[in-house]
Amino acid sequence: MSENGIKPYVRLVKSSELDVLATIQRRAFIDDPECNYFGSVDQPLSDEVDSPGKQHLETFFRFLTKACLRCGARITVAVVPSSESAGEDSEEKICASTIWMPPNKRISLGSVWALVRSGVFATVKGWGLNGLIRVGVEYGEVSGRALKEAYATRGLKKQSPDSSWYLQLACTDPHEQGKGYMSLLCREAFAHAPSSIFTLEATTSHSRDRYTHFGFELFKEVRMGVNKVNKDGLPAKGKEAEGVPIYSMVKWE
């Protein structure tokens, strides 16, 4: 239950809510190491200070969400009605969200039309071509190898990780943390596709531990940006340039 006694629930996102969702995603990932690396951020971003980096991050999430939707994503939100008698047209507050890519539906650089229509050029303008390569190529290669290895270890060499439900993105509004919204979203996803395999990459130790609580198993820790950035995704040299950790996780059937 929410603080005002109104029960939250899960539904599909509405197209009219994508801009609001991008703002929530930006707030949730403002200091995420992976996003710092993608955006070539040279110093920590803050929601308290307007900056180009802050705006570039929101632009990226707006693009990513729209592109995923065009590629077949199932985007769910945990919402709280404005009142106990709230009807379908009443105002609702979005508290958390998940973007699930169904089996054999993935977003990639090969999805040219979907990327263009979703605003890829705005992201390139903000992050540069290097940012797009880090997101679309480096990340895909690193995460893909780890998941293939996980499947092989499980004896599923002939089955592709692309056949799983893949969690492209999940976030909770920082102002709504600790209220069980992500648990609500994950339970809904598992009920929607029972007996399915679910895969994801956690980008912090905190999110890794949360997903373990939801039934995901940590398979392997991999890194991006080794010899370029530190664990926070910021430029570094020498021993501090250990790269950004990514935790490959699977929830088996």
TrEMBL record:
PANTHER family: GNAT FAMILY ACETYLTRANSFERASE, N-ACETYLTRANSFERASE DOMAIN-CONTAINING PROTEIN. It comes from the Eukaryota. This is N-acetyltransferase domain-containing protein. InterPro entries: Acyl_CoA_acyltransferase, Trichothecene_AcTrans.
